[in-house]
Amino acid sequence: MSSTCRLLVPNQPPRSKAAIFLPFGYLEFGTLTFSVVRFPLLVNMGKGLLFVIKSIHREILILEFDPSADVVFSVLPSRYVKSGNLSTARELFNSMTDRTAVSWTILIGGYSHNNQFKEAFKLFVEMRRVGSDPDSVTYATLLSGCNDPDMSNEVIQIHADVVKFGCNSDIIVCNSLVDSYCKISQIDLACQLFGEMPERDSVTFNALITGYAKEGLNEEAIKLFMEMQHLGFKPSDFTFAAALCAGIRLDDIALGQLIHSFVVKCNFVGNVFVGNSLVDMYAKCGRFKEARKIFANLRCRSTVPWTAMISGYVQTGQFEEGLKLFNEMHRADVSADQSTFASILKASANLASLSLGKQLHSFVIRSGFMTNVFSGSALLDMYAKCGSVKEAIQIFQEMPERNIVSWNALISAYAQNGDGEATLRSFEEMIRSGFQPNSVSFLSVVSACSHSGLVEEGLRYFNSMTQKYKLTPKKEHYASMIDMFCRKGHFDDAEKLIAEMPFEPEEIIWSSVLNSCRIHKNQELAKKAADHLFKMEMLRDAAPYVGMSNIYAVAGQWDSVSKVKKAMRDRGVKKVPGCSWVEVKNSVYIFNANDKLHPQMEQIGRIIETLMIQMEKEEGYKPDTSCALHDEGEEIKIESLQYHNSTISKMGSALEEAEIAETRAMGSALVGITDYWWQCV
């Protein structure tokens, strides 16, 4: 039988009661039963309009449409599913007398696409229980919603069912399985399936390359990307993004440029997603000329490329440039996100500009990101690096939620400001709160133990890192442990740990050994450390040369002093004069060593001399001139220590502030031995 159905414009009123009002007119039904051929066309007219779908559904019920016509009840659930009304779709599905694979697949897809994979899987199990056979579309639809690592067993069961019903040669199903295994971090199973597939296409390669990059298997991602190019498969925008991400992690600018050439070859230059990835790659590699060029040519400059540029400047130490670009971003009326704030707060922290940090803090509040755990952690870190531990702790206490990042920020705050006991207390409190420490947590703890002289505690935590928490120590952990042993004069333990390290000691380790040997007057080990340092072709830091020169000078070995000086000249190494700066009342004051040009130098000098006399009288303090220039007289050496740049900066700030405790000083050079006494005053 046929039905009559016509569309009327608003100025033509309906001639029967069986009519539906639409925004563009009336949909009028005749008195005859709908034909199963025309009905799907009618329902599709209401695609995306939930009230239209419900109206059509109501008319079907009023007109007592024959429910045995399964095509109607296959189409209506799909419309409800696509409009997001899963509960009504499920009710309609349950009322169906004869469910086909199509109707099962439609509802399974509804749950999958709405991030309800568990419900989708339950429905799939029920489908199999009642004897309805899935097809390749069913499997692909079901797997599309799986991205939770906790659902590994379910994906493996689906894979087994695929094999059982002979769909394991279907490329669509296999691609879906590879993609799902990658999303749930089962990369080994994804690789195994990839190797077993009788045929592959671009989707297969794209899925596995993205999976490799996600898991940090950067070399594997690049290798597969190159194989894909060799075989002639076309990458997607996600593939290029994953390959560029892997290139960044490998710190290989040549590789990044090669991938860029493939981007041009495959005509993805205008793709916004790929463009953002290219900006990020060049910025993180410090190639800002190329990054700026791509950034300028982007059709749409959203938050992502702006943040990539800012992050690149900050990561390469160009903090002022990062902040300038943030101002440009603000003027361009582009909203910042949590990653943007994390970068600019890091810039503020490294500039030790508390006033700027407070301005950014207010900006974070106005932008509504204070409840974000990552923004809160970045603020905590900023205040800690500016020496404002009290404010850092307050930020932590006011955070609505905490994660391992925020706990690490608190632990690091105490460690950076020399409070070893508070560092350990916070670490233990974090564990009691149910958080598992990671390598960052242990680095702060070991560093705090090193600077606080807590050797036994440091060794205990270092051992628990490997034995209890199964974490592999990195170079930084070994460097902190060796520094801890050397600071306390435990050179045998330091040498033993150096010998046991799974990699060759780098500059930072031998420099730490050399500095401690000077303090503890261990000339033999100092020479060994210096020999290792001088063999490093890339060594351009003057500190090891000066340190070894001073050790030889104290021992009266002037020939050795001359050799060290010659080595410095031959390599073009020069000692850069240190400087310190303080921020007082939103103004920054810079001081150089032996600075005689400061307008308040006379007053600063009187304060220093008064303190020296007081320290000698009350504490029996005598300046350690071993760290001063060895070829000067004793009086000149003492004067150079008195007028150390950090000392001058503190005395200068004391003239500006009533309480020196409120002044935050930063220095470009390591604080000398003498400076420890000034910190005690």
Automatic annotation (TrEMBL):
Annotated Pfam families: E_motif, PPR, PPR_1, PPR_2
GO function term, MF aspect, one: RNA binding
Chain positions of PPR repeats: 100-134, 170-200, 201-235, 271-301, 302-336, 372-402, 403-437, 474-504
Coiled coil segments of this chain: none
Protein name: Uncharacterized protein
PROSITE patterns hit by this protein: PPR
Keyword list, A-Z: Repeat
InterPro entries, per the entry: E_motif, PPR_At4g14850-like_plant, PPR_rpt, TPR-like_helical_dom_sf
Lineage of the organism: Eukaryota, Viridiplantae, Streptophyta, Embryophyta, Tracheophyta
GO BP term (any one): RNA modification
